[in-house]
Design a protein that fits this description.
Elements: H1 3-17, E1 19-24, H2 29-34, E2 37-39, H3 41-50, E3 55-59, H4 62-71, E4 76-78, H5 87-90, H6 94-103, E5 108-112, H7 117-120, E6 125-127, H8 132-137, E7 145-148, H9 151-161, E8 166-167, H10 173-176, H11 180-189, E9 194-197, H12 203-208, E10 211-212, H13 215-224, E11 229-233, H14 238-245, E12 250-253, H15 274-283, H16 292-308
Parallel strand pairs: 1-2, 1-3, 3-4, 5-6, 5-7, 7-8, 9-10, 9-11, 11-12
Helix pairs in contact: 1-15, 3-4, 4-16, 13-14
The protein binds iron/sulfur cluster (SF4).
């Protein structure tokens, strides 16, 4: 079956099973275009709270499907490819994080949603790159904070807020791989292009960026800003949406260090295909199952984040 036929069958299955397909901005264009909802991690979590569908197919990675399940314990949450993990979540194993917290008592623990349910269960509040500043600002200036797992985002927030959060030493392979040297070369050949960078990028790239923001923020900026050309230093899937929303503008993916690898494509996100969405919905396979004790503990910090962000 080709994708056109598969998508038609997926729509029929969705109607029969009351299923919703939610996709992250880093998914392949055809998946973004067929999904009922496309968003960043925060928007996906907010949408997961609102949906009345009985089945949620999460076209994204494991921590996103876990978050949807944590918020919807009675619903079936399906992940099209169970190998779709996250290098950032992997950089923060729950046992090591727990030992770190034990060694630093008295801290409020903020973790990025890009973590396993077990790490969320150890946290006081979660955040996404869209609301990290808002979450940190919700705490008193003198509050002792541990922030994890992304060191670049944590250090960026420290620099903006003049806080001294203890930052876990984790990172995402996509954002770590951008080449400052090649970006500066690209800027020479595109002198009017603005550099848009995600705060998960290392500091030298953030220093030369024209605008820093979460995926959703960069998308918004690219629509409202007056430039006609942009170099985009985040996962390349977002370029599809940027181009769609601003067809008259030019979007150039920021180059990675290794030009032989497509490192600005998240290898986990790109595991999801239309065929895998069809298979998991048709057979109701790859269901996310969580230990109820962990789920309950992980739900509290996510709900606290959603409360700060003005959601339920
Ligand atoms: S882009 Fe990075 S943070 Fe996002 S899912 Fe992929 S590995 Fe994880």
């Amino acid at each position: 079956m080709d994708n056109f036929e598969l998508i038609r069958k997926i729509k029929d299955l969705q109607a029969a099973k009351n299923a919703v397909i939610m996709a992250h901005y880093y998914q392949e264009p055809e998946i973004q275009d067929m999904a009922d909802f496309v968003g960043d991690s925060l928007a996906l979590a907010q949408k997961a709270v609102e949906t009345d569908a009985e089945i949620i197919v999460l076209a994204g990675v494991n921590f996103m499907a876990e978050t949807a399940k944590i918020l919807n314990p009675s619903k079936k949450v399906l992940l099209p490819d169970t190998e779709a993990g996250c290098s950032l979540a992997d950089s923060c194993p729950a046992d090591q994080f727990e030992a770190f917290l034990s060694a630093h008592p008295g801290y409020t623990v903020i973790t990025y949603v890009n973590t396993t349910a077990a790490v969320k269960a150890l946290s006081d509040i979660t955040c996404t790159s869209s609301n990290a500043m808002q979450v940190v600002a919700s705490l008193p200036k003198d509050e002792k904070i541990i922030f994890g797992p992304d060191r670049n985002l944590g250090n960026y927030i420290n620099s903006l807020t003049d806080r001294d959060m203890l930052v876990w030493d984790g990172a995402c392979h996509v954002h770590e791989e951008f080449s400052l040297e090649k970006i500066l070369e690209l800027k020479k050949t595109h002198p009017n292009a603005k550099l848009l960078a995600h705060p998960e990028c290392p500091k030298p790239i953030l220093i030369v960026a024209d605008h820093i923001g979460s995926t959703a923020e960069l998308l918004k900026f690219s629509k409202t800003d007056t430039a006609s050309e942009y170099i985009v230093a985040t996962e390349s899937g977002i370029l599809h949406r940027m181009q769609k929303e601003s067809p008259q503008k030019c979007f150039i993916p920021a180059p990675p260090n290794d030009s032989t690898c497509a490192c600005n494509n998240c290898r986990f996100m790109k595991l999801v295909t239309v065929q895998k969405i069809y298979d998991c919905l048709c057979n109701e396979t790859n269901e996310v199952v969580l230990d109820e004790n962990i789920r309950l503990k992980a739900e509290k910090p996510i709900r606290r984040m959603l409360g700060i962000s003005g959601s339920k």
